[in-house]
Amino acid sequence: MRAPVSWIREYAALPADLSSTDLAARLTALGLKLEALEEAGGDITGPLVIGRVLGFDDEPQKNGKTIRWCQVDVGSANGNGKPQGIVCGASNFEVGDLVVVVLPGGVLPGGFEISARKTYGHVSSGMICSARELGLGDDHDGILVLGPDAGESGDDAFEALHLREDVLEFEINPDRAYALSLRGVARDAALGFDVSFTDPAERSTPAPNDNGYPVVVDAADGCPVFVTRTITGFDASAPTPTWLSRRLQLAGMRPISLAVDVTNYVMLELGQPIHGYDRDRLSGPIRVRRASAGERLRTLDGVDRELSTEDLLITDDTGPIGLAGVMGGETTELSGSTSSVVIEAAYFDPVSVFRTERRHKLPSEASKRFERGVDPRLPEAAADRVVELLVSLGGATVEDGVTKVGEPPAPTRVTMPADLPARLTGMPIDAATAVAHLREVGCEVSLAPAEGAEVLDAVVPSWRPDLTDPFDLVEEVARIVGYDGIPSVLPSAPSGTGLTTTQALRRRVGRTLAGAGFVEVVSFPFVGTAAFDALGLPAGDDRRVSMRIANALSAEQPFMTTTLLPGLLEAAARNGGRGQGDLALFETATVTLPRGGPAAPILPVDRAPTEGEWDDLQKSLPDQPWHLAVVLTGERERSGWWGPGRRATWSDALEAMRAVASALGVELSVRSAGRAPWHPGRCAELSLGDVLVGHAGELHPKVCAAYGLPPRSAAAEVDLDVLLQHATEPVGPRLSSFPVAKTDVALVVPEQVAAADVAASLREGAGELVESVRLFDVYTGEQIGEGRKSLAFSLRLRAPDRTLTEEEVAAARRAAVDLARDRHDAEQRT
Amino acid sequence: MSGPNTDYDPVEVTPLKAEQVEAMREAALTAIAQAGSLDQLKQVRLDHAGDRSPLALANREIRALPPQARKEAGQRVGPARGAVSRALTERQAALEEEHEARILVEEAVDVTLPWDRLPVGARHPVTTLSERIADVFVAMGWEVAEGPVVEAEWLNFDALNLGPDHPARTMQDTFWMDPAENRVVLRTHTSPVQARTMLTRRPPIYVVCPGRVFRTDPYDATHSPVFHQVEGLVVDEGITMAHLKGTLDHFAASMFGDGITTRFRPSYFPFTEPSAEVDLICFVCRGVDSEECRTCRGEGWIEWGGCGVVNPRVLVACGVDPDRYTGFAFGMGIDRTLMFRHGVEDLRDVFEGDVRFTSAFGTEI
Ligand SMILES: [Zn+2]
């Protein structure tokens, strides 16, 4: 909403010395948030005066142009009273016309300084201005010719053209519909400075009668009030006066024609959208009804629209002529030949207008106001104001018929304890203050004694449909008292229990990985089929079952992702493209796993959901477990002056998962697996007991290629929720002070035997004396034989209560080797 | 002069004469002083203090002297040997010291050689900032609440007093899960977590909810369809806007330093009434001579978020007795806070995963 300050001042008796900045600050504090303070015309410096063209000579030039050498009377503005000689390139004016002249020394927008200069063989002492040069619109076809009543030669043109004006632009919140009018802005300005307010809507209007243009309202729920007035003998060629067009322009609307300009002006002034119909193009009575199925309307923007049966229509005998409160139709549009106008001022149901506007994607100045709620008592006054302006400016005559169908709804009444403002805001607001401020916003207020606090009863003004609850009234009182007066008091919460275990553990996981050199990534959870294909997920893969977003921003990524890998691999590729190829990235986030639940219920809001309703609501939502994923590319340890580095391998992905597991006090069991997007021979399945946790390993070469990652990049993804659920608290170990016995075992096993299984067997075989089993070498070669490999383990054995004898160590070692031999066809290498 | 001296004639024993003992001592001390290395000293030790050194031999000869002469000779030879032994020890220590010092000098390296062999990890600043914010409130006894991002329409809108035709539903354009008739959305704010909290806990409630939210905004330097919010909710007896102001002032000071407070401006949110926008005193210029300040762009204040008294309609839909309890709620953007707190100029940096960005924030914020 753009409000010229002079227009605000017309209704609010603000102090003359009040600056626009201070006015804007006060209104912002009252809830009308300033977007911008524009000093219109501030970039023009005088002398800028009205001139009368006394005569001119058209002088053709060699370049084909014709210039006019003009003699212009600028009164005494030039200091000598003599006609001013000015060269002008335009030819849209006659002798005797009033024009706008900037004299030497003046500056036009853009820092364009005017001086007397020699041009086309004359000394041109100034310039005759076009509308655009003055910042008065886009018209650049010729110079600006003023109406005969604009003023006298030598008059200051700033004043005559209303050039200089401060304009406040507000961002109006949806609850403050009243502030979409000068009437509303001025009311807040007046109460903000405690000065008198003149309501422009307060005018005596003729009583409704049966002589007006006939109107039938079939859909009273959508159109509670419909008022028409009719004018005839309107001069469609009458110009819009400068003051009016300038105000429209400053308020952000383009002047079009007098009749349209007047309807827009009244809308800005009062907040009541007005529609004008060319009466000669109306046939039969106006009928307000809902659209029938299949009905169509060509709206003023030239679009032929299919209507919904919910759309509220204005119709005549020919069919639809307008979408009520949203946009008119072409057939009855005002034109250059219109002489009789039927003026519509109605109150339409906000919800109906909102739905129609949204359905047809047709936001307009009218719908913006109707959907927020227009003052339902306004139509008569607004129509009367339009009549007044069309009569005085367009030479029209008003007919005595006044149609009014329907009545505005009864005013809203809100009662509340008079101490509620104090209790809610924490400010010492007494009942008298609350009453006074509510009266300022237009409420009729009374106080009644009651047990405890007095009861405040407020009849809400018709222009404040937002005030329905006691808390709404509290906000009105509070904003006038001023939010700056709210004291700052820290509430004392009861003792809390800190982070939940899960929350604390999630942090621990992040810290562990960062400590291991991984960098965290936050990516969008959107994904497309292309990503699933790039990962090489087979057709039936569970991760392809994803939830679609109905209105996704990108058609390529319409799904909520089921895996963190696409985002992570893309981030890795992006880094690679930026010259950062040695990467260890991780992400923890939720994924969305559909479970085909029922539709989510829309529950009542006047009570809490029942247990059953709550369960239904939960069931409608997909599973959204937290996942953890990592990706490694390039060097895990960098090469440098110290020697070669170490490229990341499949094992680094596993090690990261083991580090996380270890931080959570769980031990992952590892099995060989084949799952996309991993290398089929280098993929590990990670589990906790019987519970699958995730996978880790080297990425499939095709996946690396698809994402443009270095070969042998590695990745892992696990269900973090499962890991966290199994997390254990550390148990303090009992440290034996007896010496450790170390013994190494080298076993030759078939190549396909998993080292982890052999280690487990050794551990199991050696029994409770085992402190640790660590694989320290893997060897294949001729000495070992085809299809076999040698695994070398070091076993640490220790007893809590004694030094182990050589016999005990040998027995344990033998038992370990025996079990490995039985289970894995292992032979001891000697 | 090998073997026991059978020729018992003390006059014959010349090495035990005083001048001779003195000469041996002098010779030994001179050799010790002249030893330039541990190796040389080793030889000197053999020559002058070894079994066959003159003084050792002289000592051995003492036994051959007659008893009276023994004492006299012993008093000459003993101190001489002692002096040599001490000199050896001292010289040994000095030479060892020199040797070690030289080795240390020889072992010197160029300590300016870079060492970046092991990668340095980092956590995402949105994560660490969320944690830091949560910690401010946890320190006051609040708890951290969470909820799903794919959320029921009713919880995201209706329960929060955003009815089906509320204009606010178009203000924050929503991602709808397909089919839309299933009435499931990507949450447009973290407020449904507040509703969930009220529906699953009894007052008093003091919770803060950081999380990821979604709106159909274009992706540019200041907008993103995915971003992060933190909201706070208090429901208790006798809660007023003063408690809201006190909480946000404390929050501001905790995040931006002592003396940084907030300002409220009336605003509108369906779930709160009265509602306010929260501005923060610029923590860089502190509102003084702000013209040049890039953080607040000359305003002296930074727009931080929204807040208000929980609308009683929300309490009712969430099963809280509005006659007994009042509450307040507030919310702000975590990414936005990150941007102005740390001078991030392009929101897209937050979501691109560029390691240069994340690494700049380390592991805490
Ligand atoms: Zn600043």
Automatic annotation (TrEMBL), chain B:
Chief localisation class: cytoplasm
Lineage: Bacteria, Bacillati, Actinomycetota, Actinomycetes, Propionibacteriales
Protein name: Phenylalanine--tRNA ligase alpha subunit
Cofactor needs: Mg(2+)
Name of one Pfam family that matches: Phe_tRNA-synt_N
Similarity comment text for this entry: Belongs to the class-II aminoacyl-tRNA synthetase family. Phe-tRNA synthetase alpha subunit type 1 subfamily.
GO cellular component, one term: cytoplasm
Keywords in alphabetical order: Aminoacyl-tRNA synthetase, ATP-binding, Cytoplasm, Ligase, Magnesium, Metal-binding, Nucleotide-binding, Protein biosynthesis
